[in-house]
Amino acid sequence: MNVLIVESRPELATLWKRHLERQGADVTLVSSQEAAILALYNEEFEIIVLDLILEQGSALAVADFASYRRPNARVIFVTNTSFFSDGSIFAHSSNACAYVQSETPPEDLAAMVEHYAAPR
């Protein structure tokens, strides 16, 4: 399982990465839109864990590019805000498979990654 994490907060990204690696995932960690686009150019990913609010760039631009470049990759959006709390993220991003709070326990996030990365 190849996972891309796009998260601006290094401590949170590292926590998620460690949990996913314990499950046997290969994890690429980036913190900006530009770095995410470069990673999507160079590697296949089954799942992308994407913070909705990035310090540098746009999460929706990353998701949109992923739907073009890696159409089979699914996106789990995470956030600590109330943006899209009505579920409308699924209307804006065709590759969205989940929307969770940043405070979701890392083991729960890892279970979701494993579930959504499974072949469809």
Explain this structure.
There is one protein chain. By secondary structure, the chain is α/β, with parallel strands linked by helices. It has one domain (2-117): Rossmann fold. Helix content is 42%, strand content 22%. It contains five helices and five strands, in the order βαβαβαβαβα. It has helices at residues 10-22, 33-42, 59-69, 89-92, 106-117, and strands at 2-6, 26-30, 47-51, 74-79, 96-101. It has a five-stranded parallel β-sheet, with helices on both faces. Helix 1 packs across helix 5 (106-117) and helix 2 packs parallel to helix 3. It starts with a strand and ends with a helix.
Concise synopsis of the structure shown:
Helix 1 crosses helix 5 and helix 2 packs parallel to helix 3.
**DSSP helix fraction:** 40-55%
Largest sheet, in brief, is: 5 strands, parallel
Mean pLDDT: 89
Q: Cα-atom Rg, whole angstroms?
A: 13 Å
Number of helical runs? 5
CATH architecture: 3-Layer(aba) Sandwich
- Reading side by side through the largest sheet, how are the strands ordered? 2-1-3-4-5
* CATH homologous superfamily identity: Response regulator
**Number of DSSP-assigned strands:** 5
CATH class: Alpha Beta
Order of helices and strands: EHEHEHEHEH
Assign the structural class, choosing from mainly alpha, mainly beta, alpha/beta, alpha+beta, or little secondary structure: alpha/beta
